């Protein structure tokens, strides 16, 4: 494993202001969401908005380096979207982590690119493809076949779109928590009600599931030996035990781990 490693995820809302500008809508703000959703369904048959209209409300990450593990979140509780992006992008100015995501090459990174451009931000450390640092011609964060950014959804599908899986399904199949509760997408509710801890816990849960799948991927590829894999899993459990907001994640993980022959050993029975 090449350190440091940054596993990340973003959460978004529809940018109704930009959407109104794009479509020339003169409507009360309360009506814009439904109008934009209707227009999008007419265009594409889905409510899922164009990537530039995804306004970022949270970016979470799990950082691993030679000093240990650290979870973080930048959210709209304290920061504007531009400030969230500035904080996240500054990570790449200081270090050049191996970036891990689920669907990051098709969603998270393009959204970050568009929204950074919208706010007039500069991020050469993340988006340079060799124009500044010639070494990045051969290993950059955009090329799907490079290892600087590993999009697990992409690589596990062997780069065939028909094999893509949802993070929730992949996590469950491997014995990890996946989405807890009913699995509904509640980000708009969390933001509207200013339930910031619920928002960051949701985003961090996706990060944790992605991280655990990444460890299994490294084991498959022989980039981690079994003992090292077990050590990192146990280190993750120990780290989360010190984070009260992830008590539910640990509890669900303990239950789901019993469903596969391999993950049943993640939580060994207590000794008497």
TrEMBL record:
Record GO terms (molecular function): nucleic acid binding
Pfam families: DNA_pol_B_exo2 (PF10108)
Protein name: Predicted 3'-5' exonuclease PolB-like domain-containing protein
Record domain Predicted 3'-5' exonuclease PolB-like: where: 46-251
